[in-house]
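Thread: Modeling a multi-component assembly for a lab meeting

Hi all, long-time lurker, first post. My supervisor asked me to bring a structural picture of a complex we are working on to next week's group meeting, and I have zero experience with this. I have the sequence lines for every component (265 residues in total). Could someone generate the structure of the whole assembly? Inputs are pasted exactly as I received them:
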Amino acid sequence: MSEKGTESIQSPLGKVKGLGAAHNGVTHWWHQRITAITNIPLMLWLVWSVVHIPAWTHQEFVIWLEQPVNSILMILSILSVFYHAALGCQVIVEDYFHVEWMKITKLIGIKLFFFALTVTCIFSVLKISFGV
Amino acid sequence: MAGKVERPLSPHLQVYRPQMTSVMSILHRATGFALAVGTVMVVWLLLAAASGPTAFATFTWFCNTLIGKLMLLGWSVALFYHLSNGVRHLIWDTGRMLEINQAYRAGYFVLASTVILTLLTWWFSCPYKGGIE
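Re: Modeling a multi-component assembly
Sure thing. I ran the full set together rather than chain by chain. Output:
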C-alpha cells in the first residue's frame, strides 16, 4: 500500500480525497506561520526606519535606501509582508464567499494584485539602489 | 459540496455575547485586512521615490496632512495590534497558553503592548516634522 521512499504523513484516505478542502494540504498554513515569524523583525525594522520619512527630502530618502543593507531588508520586507497579506486575504475570501465563481475570481484577483504590487515595489527599490 | 442545505454558520453571531477573546479574534482579522490595504502606502512611498523629487514631495506632503497623519496613526495601531496578537496566536499554535485565564492574560498583554509600541513610535517621530505641529 505505502511505497518506500515516498515519505509522507498523509493517510491513504487523505491522498485520494485530494489534500483537504483547499486541495493544498497544510502548505498555506505553514507559509502563513513562517511569514508571520519573518514579518516580526522586518516590520520592527521598517517602522523604526520609516518614522522620520515624512520629514525627509527625496535626496535623504534615496541616500538611505540605496545602502545595500536597507535595499535588501526593504525587498525582504516586501516579499514577506505581501505574501503574508495575500495568504490572509485568501482566508477571508474563503470564509465569507461561498459562490464558487465569485470566490475563484476574488482569489485570482488577490494573487494578481499582490504580485503586481510586489513587482512595483521591488523594481522601485532596485531602480534607486542601482542609481536613478 | 452541492449544498443547497441552509446550515447554520458558526458562531451564531445573533446569540453570541461578545467577549474580550472573541472581539480580539475578529480584530486580528480586521487589522490584518486593514494592513493589507495599507500596503498601498508603502507602494506609493517606493514608487514616488523611484519617480523623482516631485512625486516624493507629494507623498511627504500627504503624510503631513491631518488625514495622512490619521491614516498613519491607524496604520501603526493596526500593525502593532496584529503583530502582538500574532505572537499570541503563534504561542497558541505550539499548544501553549490555551487555558481561558491564560488567553485573557495574554490578551491584556497584547493590548498593553499595542499601546506602548504605538506611543513609542510616535514619540520617536515627534521631534521631527512628522509629529505634532
